[in-house]
Amino acid sequence: MRLHCCSLAVLLLPLLLASATDFDFFYHVQQWPGSFCDTTGGCCFPGNVKPAADFGIHGLWPNYAACRPAGDTNRTRCWPDFCNAGDTFNPSLISDLRSDMDRNWGTLSCRSNDSTAFWSHEWSRHGTCSNMDQHAYFLAALRYKARFNLTRILLDAGIAPSEERTYCVGSIRDAIGEATGSAPGIECNRNARNETQLYQVYQCVDLAGTGPVPCPAVPMQSRCTDQVKFPAF
Length: 233
Hints:
Layout: H1 5-19, E1 25-31, H2 33-37, E2 56-63, E3 68-69, E4 76-77, H3 98-104, H4 116-125, H5 134-147, H6 150-156, E5 166-168, H7 169-180, E6 185-190, E7 196-205, E8 221-222, E9 227-229
Parallel strand pairs: 6-8
Antiparallel strand pairs: 1-2, 1-7, 3-4, 5-9, 6-7
GO molecular function, one term: ribonuclease T2 activity
InterPro entries: Ribonuclease_T2_eukaryotic, RNase_T2-like, RNase_T2-like_sf, RNase_T2_His_AS_1, RNase_T2_His_AS_2
GO cellular component, one term: extracellular region
């Protein structure tokens, strides 16, 4: 029996829908290098070349608006991850993005001076759940960072890296929220002197990875005090 092309499309549609990952928004996560490097673990630079004093991408992470039951267990899941073990990272698919990736999404970990392992992990854990192919996923993250330059946004608000000054974490959130239209989540860490400092910014992004959306409920503020350092790099 010959199937009409429209009938075939109808038959395939459930299969295509079943392969899509269900989630509500992305976290576009950027990390301040000064706060990564002045912890007790220190940092290392790919090719021994210090990157610019600019926020770097950590990842583009699919997320749920509310945590969900995890199968038949009593646990919950707040995001999908590792959605397709067969779709392994292939650097050749993003070869045209390599210079932008090195500049904006490089590793600072001393475990490797090659960012490829970092990108591979981000793709395997998060990118395979994004409903994008590899090139589209990495390009979306790069374009979003370029659209909203966090370093410039904070500088324009009078929030500049400093070894002496501290800043109200609410002022950091407000500056980014006013510039982007969505108040972000803020994560802090502690430096080697046990001072609280701005570490990562979590921007909520639509399912296409292109535009800001309101973060669900109260924006995350992890391990922050009211006043935080924004260390020089």
